[in-house]
Amino acid sequence: MAQLVPAAPVPVGVPTSGGDVASGSAPGVRARPRLVLVGLILAVSMTTIDQTIVSLTAPTIARSLGLSASGIEWAINAYLLAAAALFQLGGRLSDVFGYRRMVIVGSALFLAGSIVCGLVPGGSAAAGVLIAGRAVQGAGMTAMFPSAVGLLFVTVPASGRASSMAKFFSITGAMTALGPILGSWLAPINWRLIFFVNVPLGLAALAALMVAHVPRTRRPARIDLAGATLSGAGMFLLVFALQKIGAWGWGDLRVWTLVALGLAALVAFVATQRRAREPLLDLRVFADRAFCLATAAIAFSSMAFMAVFYFLSV
Asked: How many Cβ atoms are within 10 Å of 29's Cβ, its own excluded?
């Protein structure tokens, strides 16, 4: 999935008063915005490179490990399913526990998942370990990406925020093109290197964020578990249905049952958010016309990108 999100006027959870931010450094020590930007670009680039390099190297991985078509399909889809199901919750956790903390947690999770995938043993356990590693990567991305955007917002001064956001999104987005190039070099040597390439990126990102005097944000609040469950279930079912259309066909009752269940869960999610005192998603953001138009534009461009990218690469 393309790692692009529209910019709201003020991201949900971004502190609007000084009392919501606790500096992560000693008194009088200022954050280093440039180093923060570098760390965030390195962290998110792991995910954008990974989404293309793994898909295009999948046949090599399957042959090496002796995976069935179903096994390698689940290894690819586990990342997308985890990301779709947990993305809303990841954004809320970033608000509650702080952007700095969740960027670090997400980066560490993604790094750990990459190492697990790179160390997958042969034999009957291969598929299960690879699928688990990919799911951990997806979970790490959902913690890392929303918090990275929020952290950039609160760290960079307003005068340089637009420029920093442009650099962040353009560079991390361009990293998708690096996946096929790296894959073509690394796969013939050893396919495991396509996962280990994340190790230096992840370690460098963590090191940069640790020494950049990043402010610690926090907003004590309840986490809407009912909303998280409904949104996660709805997105999981819809994405799973779309992924199975190729195997089952558009006319299969199972596809439309999954679609109906997914839509029902999302409708229930919206209903709970309208009543919740501390909703997982503040529906008032959709009253902003610019936000809605930007969201729609990015949704359609992302669908076009993911549909065309694979075929152009092949």
From this structure: 10
In the chain, what's the furthest Cα-to-Cα distance?
A: 65
CB-based burial of residue 277 (10 Å sphere; 0-12 exposed, 13-18 middle, 19+ buried)? exposed
CA nearest neighbour of 88 among 10, 169, 145, 165: 145
Per-residue pLDDT reduced to its tens digit, 242-290: 888 888 999 999 999 999 999 999 999 999 999 888 888 888 889 999 9
Contact residues for 270 (Cβ-Cβ < 8 A; gap 6+): 283
Long-range CB contacts for residues 279-287, cutoff 8 Å, separation at least 24: 279/224, 279/227, 280/88, 280/89, 280/92, 280/223, 280/224, 280/227, 280/228, 280/231, 281/12, 281/88, 281/227, 281/231, 282/12, 285/8, 285/12
Q: What is the pLDDT of residues 6-49, one digit of tens each?
A: 333 334 444 333 333 444 444 444 668 888 999 999 999 999 88
pLDDT averaged over every residue in the chain: 84
pLDDT surpassing 60 at residue 4: no
Return the higher-pLDDT residue of 19 and 93.
93
